[in-house]
Amino acid sequence: MPPSHLYRPAPLFPTLGAEFADPVAPAAFPMAKLRWRNDVAARHIGLDTLTSDEWAAHFARFEPLPDNIPAPLAMRYHGHQFRNYNPDIGDGRGFLFAQMRDDQGRLIDLGTKGSGQTPYSRFGDGRLTLKGGVREILAAEMLEAQGVKTSKALSLFETGEALERNDEPSPTRAAVLVRQQHSHIRFGTFQRCAFFERADLISQLIDYAGEAYFPNVLDAAPAERPAALLREVVRATADMAGGWMAAGFVHGVLNTDNFVLTGESFDYGPWRFLPASIPSFTAAYFDQQGLYCFGRQPEAASWNLAQLGGCLALVSEIPLLESELRNFTTEYQRALREKVFTRLGVKQTDPGADIEFLSALFQWMGATQISWDQFFHDWFCVSETRADVSPLAAHYAAPEFALLRTGLLQRGPLRPERLNHPYFQRSSPVSLVIEEVEALWTPIAESDDWSLFQEKIAAIRTL
Prior knowledge:
This protein is of the alpha+beta class and 463 residues long.
C-alpha cells in the first residue's frame, strides 16, 4: 500500500546544494525487527498506511520514499561542545532521509540515528544501542505529553548487531531510529559556514529558513533578514528552554550542534527528569563541572544563541543582532510563565508578580525537596481538595507554604473542568525518573519483555 493522500513530499534541503551535506549509503543490517512504530505521528505525514514490509523497506533499509530525497544526506556542521569549538563533527551516525509537509502544511524532516558510518564518523561505528533507542522514544513521548516542542521517535528497528560501549554492559544490542522534526538546521550549520568565512552560504541558509520555517523572514528587506531570523530563533529557543524547566527536564548535552533553528528538543542521549528541585542536577556523567545542569539550561541556550548571532554578523550589522539577543531574557521569562502556569493549570496575572511567585515557588521546592512531578499533579487547577489528601499534604499544611497557597488561590484555575479527566483521579502522576527508565529496560534486556515499556507509553499518552 503506498503512502496515503496526506503524503506530500517536499525535498527542500537538497536545493541548498553540495556544500551542506554528503550523499551516503545506509548500513546493511543483518536483522530488522520492528520495536516501535509511531502511527500517531505517521498519520500526520501520510505514512501510517505503509504495510509492515514497506515500513521496513523505508526505515530499516532506507529505500527512498516516493518523489523524495534520492540518497541519504549526512549533514555538514561544526559546533561548540562543552564550550570548546570542534570543526571535526557532522552527521556521524545519522542522515537526513526525507522531507515532507504535514497535514498542517509544515515542513517535516525525517532523520536517523544509528544508520551507519559517514564521512564524519571519525572513530565511531555509526550505530545506536537498542537501549539508546528506547530512551529516545521515552524522552520524546514524555516531553510531547507535557507540551514541550520536541522531535518524535517515528520508528525503531533492532538490527541484530552486538555493540561494545563503555557506558553500559557490553556487548549490547543495536538498533536504528528514525525521528521526525521540523528542522535539522543546527546552530552548528551556520558555524561551519562562518568558520570558512562563507557569507554567501550563510545568506543561503537564511533564505532557506525563511522559505521552510519562518515566512516573516522573507518579508524583511534583505539587509534585515539576518536579524529577523535571529528574532524567530530567539523566541523559539526561549520556548524550548522554558518548556524544559517546567517539565523538570535536563537535556544533558546542550552543545550548539544540538540546537536547531525551530527550537525543538532532540538528540536524547544522557537526559534525566528531576526527582526534586535540584538546580545543580546534571544528566551526563561526564559533565563534571555542571555546565549543562538543570539550573543553567537557560544560560546555555542564551550562550548558544550568541554563537549563532556571531555567525550572522558576517552578513548583518552587529547592533541589529545584539538587539535581538538582548530579548532572550524577556522571551524566556514569558515562556517560563506560560509553561509552568500551563502545567499547573493556573491563570497568569501580572508578568512581574508571576515571575516573583515562580521564584518563591522554586525556592520552596528546593528547600523541601518534594517530588517535582507530584507537586504539579497535586495542585493542577488549584485543587485544594486533592492537594490536602496528597502524600505531600504535610508540606502543604506547613507555614512556609502559606503564601504560595494564597498565590495559587488568587490566580485561580484555568479550565477547571479538566480535573474530571481520569488522569487526575490518580493519587500519583506518571513520571519518568531514571529509576523508572532502568526498570523498564531490565525486562527488555533480560527476557525481551516489552510489556512495561508499552504500559509506560500508554500511561504517558493519558497526560
